Structure formats: C-alpha cells, structure tokens
Automatic annotation (TrEMBL):
A GO term for molecular function: glycosyltransferase activity
Native source organism of the sequence: Sinisalibacter lacisalsi
InterPro entries on file: aa-tRNA-synth_II, aa-tRNA-synth_II/BPL/LPL, HisRS-like_core, HisRS/HisZ
NCBIfam families: PRK12295.1-5
Ranges annotated as spanning the membrane: none
UniProt name for this protein: Histidine--tRNA ligase
Ranges where the Aminoacyl-transfer RNA synthetases class-II family profile domain occurs: 17-351
Assigned keywords, A-Z: Glycosyltransferase, Transferase
Source organism phylogeny: Bacteria, Pseudomonadati, Pseudomonadota, Alphaproteobacteria, Rhodobacterales
Subunit structure and binding partners: Homodimer.
C-alpha cells in the first residue's frame, strides 16, 4: 500500500492537472446532512455510509462521495457553465471479504454545461484518460440512459416500471422482478392467498410495526393491481435483455442500437445521444474502435447516474476496484435544484489505486 504522503502528493498532482484545464477548486464539508442522502437513495444508504448525530445538525453522514454536495453547491450559487475539481476523503462501509479501506481519497472533475452534453461527456472522459495515460488502463463504457428509456417504454403498469427503475442498480433483484412481471416466475409465496381473502386486513392479532393501517391498505391495493396486470410481452423482455447484454466496441455498437430502436422506438433519442457522444469522443482523439461498451455497465454504482457511464481498470491488477469512474447525472441536478436543472457529468480518481498500479509495474 502506498504511503499516505505519496497518496496526497498524487492527489495534488491530479488537482493541479484539472486546475490547469480550467477547473475551479472547491471543498465540501466532511459531515453531510443525512436527510438529503436518505431522500435520494432511501434507507439503503445506511448500509453504505457512516451515520452519526449532532444535537444541532441532527442526523448526519460522513461524506460517502463528493457529487451530491458539489451539485448542491453549484445549484445554490454556481455560474454557468462551470468546471470544478476537488480532493478529499470519502467514507464507505466495505464488505468484510473485500479488505478495502473504509476511508480513502478521491480527486474529481465535474462539468456543468448545457451547451453540448455530448462534448462535455467526451471532455470528462478524455481528461481522465489523459491524467491516467501512463498507467495503460483499460476503459469500459456504458449508457444508463438507454436502459432507463427501454424500461420506461415497457407495456406494463407505472408501478412495475417504477420498481424496475428503482432496482436497476441491483441486477439480481432487477432480474427477479422482470421474471415475475413477465410471467416467467411466480409471485412470492402466500401473496395469492392473501389477496384471495375477502378482507386481507382482517386478522385477530393487533397491527404492530412501522406502517400505519392506511399504508398497509395502500400496499394491498398495489399488490392487487400488480396481480391483475398482464405480463410484460415476451418481445419487449427479449429486446431489453439484448440491450443489457450488449458487449462491443463503441464504433461497432451504433448500428446494433439503431436496429434495436426500430423495434423499440422509445430508445431512439438515447441512441442519437450515444452516436453524438461517440463522434465527440473521436473528435477529442479517443480511439473508439478500441473503446469497450457494455450494456449493463454502471448498474452497481450509486443511483444518480442516468446517461453515459465509464470506468478505468488495471488489467494487470484484477483484484483492484476501478482506478477512476464517472458518468452523467442530469436528473440529480433536477432533484437538488429545487426547480432548476443543468446537464452535468463528472468523474473521480482514487490516487492510491493509481499508485498501486505503478508499484505493481516496478
């Protein structure tokens, strides 16, 4: 593991690199209000963040990443367009089996610019690639926007689509729901029996728990609606599976996406954005004939990405997480902007991982 001083030196180098490309350096508090993060991600965030409390601030979390506070800062007082860079610790609980540090440094670069989103995507990707160029990392890309568009166009209820979108970042749960909604798997045990009762709320035992009687009744009504809904058509499930399973270089994937858009017209705007991004990447000197695209890429990250996503990996160190990750998060600016929004894309680098790759080559 690199020395702490060396990691901070590498972080300083990366900060200077991004400042030299026009970014303004910013800082955010280490302690973040828990309410904002809970509103964004739900109670699941508790399993990934360190939670504490303060008699004045209330419930708070040690900063799990920089994107949310940077977006809040920009939406409150930022000029347009804007480019920011930052460095500091983030804190995330780790699975015991990973043996990874729960606290580590991130250096980031964020772009808020509505003029040309495709060009901004290409700018962020190419600058990260340039900053890490000597490491010879493999880049992988994806597009969450394609998946969101495909799911939103499914022939099914709005509740089902909302559930699939909510669990898009949990592939196993997503697959379970899709199988059930398409009729390929049965409903959970006991559900049919519950709904068959004349009054599912009737029972001898008192209602105990966090949900009110009204909330339970609403949940039962939602289950009844789901039970009555017809299955998602097989052809739509196949098209979605094809989209998720795509693996090809960026230059070869456009034709396949256009073919899918013939049968699933709702993804056509996202396909157009993909093609514009590919052209912008090529214009910045990125060799898209060697740039990988994976239809399912980005589905295990924090849930704010809604478009282009990417990561940089050391093929010689498969034990390491990605050295850098990034993507587009336009929807997050809408949520945090309180009525205003702006296209936004950014990325973070973990300097200690970059140094570990260097050490592995020594």
């Amino acid at each position: 593991m690199p020395e702490a001083a060396a990691i901070r030196d590498e972080a300083a180098r990366l900060l200077a690199f991004f400042e030299g490309r026009g970014a303004v350096r910013v800082e955010t508090p280490v302690l973040q209000p828990a309410e904002t993060l809970l509103d964004l991600y739900g109670e699941d965030i508790r399993g990934r963040a360190y939670v504490t409390s303060d008699p004045v601030v209330g419930e708070a979390m040690l900063r799990p990443d920089f994107t949310v506070p940077v977006v809040q800062m920009h939406m409150e007082r930022g000029a347009e367009p804007a480019r920011y860079t930052y460095a500091g610790e983030v804190f995330r609980k780790q699975e015991e089996a990973t043996h990874r540090a729960p606290e580590y440094l991130q250096v980031g670069y964020e772009v808020f610019d509505r003029a040309d989103p495709a060009a901004a995507d290409a700018e962020v990707f190419s600058l990260i690639a340039e900053a890490l160029g000597p490491l010879g990392l493999r880049a992988a890309t994806g597009d969450v926007g394609l998946l969101i568009a495909a799911i939103s166009a499914l022939t099914t209820t709005e509740r089902r689509k909302a559930a699939l979108l909510r669990h898009l970042w949990r592939p196993r749960r997503f697959r379970t729901l899709l199988d059930r909604f398409s009729g390929r798997a049965p409903a959970p045990p006991g559900r049919a029996e519950l709904l068959a009762r004349p009054d599912p709320m009737a029972c001898d035992a008192p209602l105990v728990g966090l949900r009110s009687e009204a909330e339970i009744a609403e949940r039962i009504e939602a289950l009844r609606e789901d039970a009555a809904a017809p299955p998602i058509p097989d052809n739509e499930v196949r098209l979605l599976a094809d989209l998720i399973g795509l693996r090809e270089t960026v230059d070869n994937i456009a034709e396949h996406l256009q073919d899918l858009a013939v049968d699933m017209p709702a993804i056509a705007p996202a396909v157009s954005r993909f093609i514009a991004r590919a052209e912008a990447l090529a214009a910045r000197g990125v060799d898209i004939s060697r740039l990988d695209f994976e239809g399912s890429y980005g589905r295990t990250s924090l849930e704010y990405y809604d478009g282009f996503v990417f990561g940089f990996y050391a093929e010689s160190r498969p034990d390491l997480p990605p050295v850098a990750t990034g993507g587009r998060y336009d929807a997050l600016t809408r949520v945090l902007g309180q009525g205003s929004e702006i296209p936004a894309v950014g990325a973070v680098i973990r300097p200690e991982l970059a140094l570990q790759v260097v050490e592995g080559r020594a």
